[in-house]
């Protein structure tokens, strides 16, 4: 039990620091997605005719890539939570 008490503050502090130092919040993410949409529209406007369609498709591909990156970050955070939980279980089992 003592090792849990000794380790728990460090684990909690690390997760708090992760949350505090996160680069984007939900509100910032929404603003970035809106800005991305505006930039895609501007990209389409710069390219006339058929090139505009290609530019729009490229912009949409960039948008999909951003969504995949966001989902990957969420998955990383989830896995880190699982690792932390397993560490806590291991510490609890040792006691």
SSE series: HHH
What composes the largest sheet?
none
- Beta-strand percent range: under 5%
Alpha carbon gap, first and last residue: 5 Å
- Average residue pLDDT: 77
Radius of gyration: 21 Å
Low-confidence spans: none
The number of strands is 0
Share in helix: over 70%
User: What structural category arises from helix and sheet content?
Assistant: mainly alpha
Question: Shape, please?
Answer: elongated
Count of DSSP helices?
A: 3
Structure description:
With 95 residues, the chain is mostly helical. It contains 3 helices and no strands.
List the helices and strands and how they pair.
Elements: H1 2-20, H2 26-46, H3 50-94
Helix pairs in contact: 1-3, 2-3
List keywords for this structure.
0% strand, mainly alpha, elongated, 95 residues, 3 helices
Short synopsis of the structure:
The protein is mainly alpha-helical. The protein has helices spanning 2-20, 26-46, 50-94. 89% of the residues lie in helices and 0% in strands.
